Amino acid sequence: MNAIGEYMIVITDRLRAGRIGGHDIFKLKSYKIIPFSHNNMSLSDAQTGEEAAYISLLHTHLQSGEFYFSYEYELTHSLQRQAELRGNTQPVWERADDRFFWNYRLQSKLIDHTRRHKDQNLSGFILPIINGFVEIKATDIHKKPFTLVLISRRSRHRAGTRYFSRGVDIDGNVSNFNETEQIVVVDPIVNGTVPIAAGNYIMLAHVQTRGSVPIFWTQINNIRYTPKLQIFDNPQTGSAFRRHFETQKKLYGHQLVINLVNKKGYESPIGAAFSKEVDSQNDPQIKYHHFDFHHECSKMRWHRVSLLLNHFHNDLVDQGYFKAEVSRGAVQRVFQKQTSVARTNCMDCLDRTNVVQSVISRWVLNRQLQEIGILPPSEQLESSEQFEILFRNVWADNADVVSRAYSGTGALKNDFTRTGKRTKSGALRDLQNSIVRYVKNNFLDGARQISRTSSFSFSQTCPSILSVMSASGALRRFPRLWSTRSMSSYSLASNRDSFQMHPHKAQKCILVKGVQSPLNAVRLLSTMAGSSESWVVKPEVRLEELNSLSIKPYPRYQQPKVPAVQVKDIITDYQDTMESGTKDETKKVSVSGRIHSKRESSSKLVWFDLMQDGNPIQAVFNRKNYSGSDREFELAAKVFQRGDIVQLTGHVGKTKTGQLSIFITDSFELLAPCLHSIPTRSGLKDPEKRFRNRYLDFLVNQDALGIMKKRRDVIKFIRNYLDSRNFLEVETPILSTQAGGANAKPFATHANALDMEMHMRVAPELYLKQLVIGGADRVYELGKQFRNEGIDADHNPEFTTCEFYQAYENLEGLFSMTEDMLQEMAKSVTGSTKVLTNISKDETVELSFEKPFRRINIMENLEEKLGTALPDLEREPVAELLEICKEHRVFVSTPHTVPRIMDKLISHFIEPKCVQPTFLWGHPIIMSPLAKDIKLESGRTVAGRFELFVAGKEIVNAYEELNDPVQQRDRFTKQQNDKENGDEEAQPMDLAFCTALEYGLPPTAGWGMGVDRVCQILTGSSHIRDVLAFPTMRALKT
């Protein structure tokens, strides 16, 4: 040991990652390495260099890894192991799981001292830290809050880098072993399935593991992309294999072993050796399945991962998951345990393993959320887009962290985990990462391996006494690794960050003719696989190029010398009348549009596809027909590119193959250049990118623009339908002092000129009825409403409705009118009364709008589903209704009012069954404060109201309007009481409207339609954002 001796590493700053069970979890942010001695005068130059190199290696590891700790929560243990340790009063470090106590080895001096000297307890200075991943996300589905936690713990045994650490050791420890635990923390308000003590909550957890194939094998670096594979014929293979699985079974129970390596080619010997060893052990507690991932999911058929779920379905059901009641982070009561574990591997236990583990966790999470009532039994996670995005990103982030720790780059195939599908841009990123892995794993991992294997420690307080190996001792232990290969042609730093290339560093050139080195390959691929908005060159470079060629990028528009025509008119006039191989040379036309694609046949012939208002036409640019100069031809042929907006003049004709075209003759001018690459249709599928860059979505996805045109047709039909029946269209205020007419939470604002609070309207109903009072017997409004509520597949804060009010009409008239309007609308917009629509991402149904529509009496149907009569709702039996909900595992968020509880029961038991057009009628009066009473033949009094549901969505709400001012005041008072009790959606008292009623509202029928949802159904769109030009999006984090 040299003069400098030992070091102490102290955490100087931390980031709060979140809370689990009321306990803070922290991530290492900064640290300090402190030598015990500052005297280095006795060191030689070589020793000083070694000392500096060693410290540099420690910095490399600490800065590139992810380290987490907690002063109270036992991060090294799964929740189930924590439950098994209940009653154990030992210090946290002594109870910690040795495998995941990352800094255990170099806390050993403190640990040994504490064990030897009972009167000198240093436990307060010993802090277990895990290396891995922790993500804690508070979220909700259907306004039911819960917390999703994902923890990956990396074993400190055989914790090396990719090619330096493979297989198993004699003690049964495997390389790259990670335990991943997914936890759901459920608020006691949400939990309706298990009675628990006040202030406690339910926690559910599920664990999976991954680790290298547990035999003796390695890959020997040989500078080739695929290193030499070597499997050792070691007589101790069986015992090492057995030790590994004995430990697995002791900790986790039965083993569901999923081997993902290829059955053919380079990897096949590993798969065969694993299968052979499993057979030789003949252990009934090991269920083994060899799933050739690359073969089964070839050609981007990634949905076939579900075959694994089918294979293990019964085993996963039997496996279950851990569920317990927790108080202040401590397990109080265990309801069930996880009885087995899925152990997954591929060659690296990274990319394929990441995909499979996320798929299994999704399946388990669906079951957990359904059991605790957050999801109804018929619903999947995909129904909540917000949570779907969160879930995918958490698992994708985990995949990247686990991968970087072992291979040096983010995970491959991670676009599937993050987006749910395999993409070409994802494949390009994989190629980039593969090249970086090749360089790092072959040329740089010697230093990384030393930094991982060298000893270090952490402490939560400064005055720690930690034993750290000296630099020269560490470097002498790893002479082969320290002598890292150098690259003959390149100077590459050992710091992994040198390979984080950015698009803005790309060369300023339009054509890249070759890749000269791995470094250039990384740079180029980083650009290609980066954001779809960036060219290889910066936008200003293209502008400089255009200016240097004397091409004005943004000229003032000039009317052409020949008639400017629309492409749709050319198609109408010529498509069916012109013969192939002919031209109309009697006249020239001018056409403007955007270049959709470009194909060069030769230096003298270029084909362009133009797009104008959704209509495509081909442009033939032939030097033989073009009257301009050679230079003008060459400039246009070479410089104009996909996305540019151009104007051209020529003859209409057809090619010999019958393609309608413009044969350019006189001019071909640039009107506006496109400075960014426009992705192909297949390259813009990610909803987040589509709707944040809607202009780009419309450019690339013609279907998106088609949906907007169908939306126009729907609105046009509604307006014509009502106008033809003598309805008066009006516009009522969007801002008012109070928002009434519907049970909804409004947006609030402040009018500076009036110095008063105002609200954006949630419905125009009360104003429209005042117009009827004023003598407008038939009145309607098509317009925007605003509700400050959730966003999901059927809801957007800003949405469009049509409401009409007709004097001297009743509910039966509205039934008939609704059926007639929807039947005629479907025929007008789609051409048929039978419409195919998507009720989810994966399910399409055919809807029939042929009248008559089905009708369901709500109260009778609900009592039939519940198997019991409902109590008298007028006496507000909240406790009885909540008991019914609890019995049927229906969650109702607070505040608990009769209207909210009844609405939840109806939405749970009846609405999902309404796929074909179905009227729900006979609502309880208490749910409809603006509707008249109707007494049925059964003697029950219900509201004069119906809702029309199609594809599980409410699209129409209709009433016989209450016109008794005394009853109206009474109902507003009850709503006001609900509002004061916390129901933000209850309607406010509107005295002005009650006064207007006193002047006499004739018997009136009122009707409202959600225009966006109708557009969803008629266009086959599964999400409301598809039918909105610019849907509301969550703000990006800066």
UniProtKB/TrEMBL annotation:
Signal sequence segment: none
UniProtKB keywords: Aminoacyl-tRNA synthetase, ATP-binding, Cytoplasm, Ligase, Nucleotide-binding, Protein biosynthesis
Catalytic reaction equation(s): tRNA(Lys) + L-lysine + ATP = L-lysyl-tRNA(Lys) + AMP + diphosphate
Keyword Ligase: yes
Lineage: superkingdom: Eukaryota
UniProt main location, coarse: cytoplasm
InterPro entries: Aa-tRNA-synt_II, aa-tRNA-synth_II, aa-tRNA-synth_II/BPL/LPL, Lys-tRNA-ligase_II, Lys-tRNA-ligase_II_N, Lys-tRNA-synth_II_C, NA-bd_OB-fold, NA-bd_OB_tRNA
GO biological process, one term: lysyl-tRNA aminoacylation
Record-linked Pfam families: Syja_N, tRNA-synt_2, tRNA_anti-codon
Coiled coil location: none
SUPFAM superfamilies attached to this UniProt entry: Class II aaRS and biotin synthetases, Nucleic acid-binding proteins
Location of the SAC domain: 58-408
Family: Belongs to the class-II aminoacyl-tRNA synthetase family.
Oligomeric form and interacting partners: Homodimer.
Stated name of the protein: Lysine--tRNA ligase
